[in-house]
Amino acid sequence: MNYRDLFSCENKVAVVTGGAGLIGREIALGLYNFGAEVYVADINRANAEGILNEKTGFLQLDITSEDGINRAFSQAIREKGRIDIVVNCAYPRTEDWGEKFENIKFTSWKDNVNNHLGGIFLCCRSAAEQMKKQGGGVIINLASIYGISAPDFSIYEGTDMTMPAAYSAIKGGIITLTKYIAAYYGRHNVRANAISPGGIYDRQPEAFVKKYSAKTPLGRMGAPQEIVGAVIYLASEASSYVTGENLLIDGGWTAW
Ligand SMILES: NC(=O)c1ccc[n+]([C@@H]2O[C@H](COP(=O)([O-])OP(=O)(O)OC[C@H]3O[C@@H](n4cnc5c(N)ncnc54)[C@H](O)[C@@H]3O)[C@@H](O)[C@H]2O)c1
Question: What is the domain count for the chain?
């Protein structure tokens, strides 16, 4: 084995849902840099324009629509013959996302859980069934530190921010759903892993950034580019015996 090729994604077809977003676009770029043919699959085409090139196509995708997912995945299979890597970064949320716990409407809770966790379920099912047919593949789901631990609400004091309750339920669900898929499809050479980022800097209010950073061993928020290494690891042969794992990329947030 030539270990220099361990992280190669050459000759692989990758679909990045939510690939036009803050983290998804870096993941799409990273997979492309490591040799994959990449589809940016997103509900918002306009945001994807800057990242599309001759080896990076676009799939119009709404992860809340079963038919829409079938159409998008079928297009990729028609054009490339297979899908080797699916990274789920799509992040649907309702207009009223971000309400404090006591004000969350039940309809809003249901829509968010259904659209995000439900959408991940639909994407994973379509991806895994295709991968089973073709003899293998890799699924990577974006979860969060809040899928394994509760928010410290003191970091939101002095800002309008909070962490919605549905987020914890969705992200915890994504981590265990990922393990389920790993167990269910392992015999078919389909690996499924989650990545749980900590807070990514995106021009949040200064008061929040300061408090968040002080609570993190590395003393700062993350950058979207810092998620890419884990994706390449989990997408490539470098992690050929890793499945059902949840890899935390959080500057040590969950270490203490
Ligand atoms: N940003 C962070 O601090 C952070 C931290 C931990 C985990 N995460 C997770 O990482 C993932 C990506 O987050 P982000 O910060 O890049 O979000 P983002 O909002 O920047 O990007 C999300 C993308 O999803 C697309 N999208 C929304 N609804 C969709 C739908 N129904 N179908 C298809 N695409 C849809 C959007 O158009 C957007 O391009 C999410 O799962 C998020 O929970 C983010």
Answer: 1
Could you report the per-residue pLDDT of 134-166, keeping only the tens digit for each? Answer: 999 999 999 999 999 999 999 999 999 999 999
Nearest to 197 by CA among 165, 237, 164, 229: 229
Residues with active-site annotation: 167
The CATH number linked to 165 is 3.40.50.720
Residue 103 is part of which domain span? 3-255
Whose CA is closest to atom 21 on ligand 1?
Answer: 21
Burial 153-166 (b: 16+ CB within 10 A, else e): eebbeeeeeebbbb
Q: Show the beta-strand stretches assigned E in 84-161.
A: 85-88, 137-142
CA–CA dist 106, 220 (Å, integer): 35
This prediction has a pTM of: 0.98
Atom number, ligand 1, closest to the C-alpha of residue 142: 41
Question: What does the block give as tokens for 212?
Answer: 């968040």
Express each pLDDT in 61-112 by its tens digit: 999 999 999 999 999 999 999 999 999 999 999 999 999 999 999 999 999 9
Q: Which two tokens stand for residue 216?
A: 């993190």
- Sorted by sequence, the CB contacts under 8 Å of residue 249 that are 6+ apart come out as 195, 196, 197, 198, 222, 226, 227, 230
Cα–Cα distance for residue pair 106/90, rounded to 1 Å: 22
Is any atom of ligand 1 closer than 6 Å to the C-beta of 197?
yes
CB of residue 222 inside a 6 A radius of ligand 1: no
The tokens describing 76, both together, are 């990729």
Of 16, 17, 23, 67, which is best to mutate to test ligand 1, by the most ligand atoms within 8 angstroms of its C-beta?
A: 23
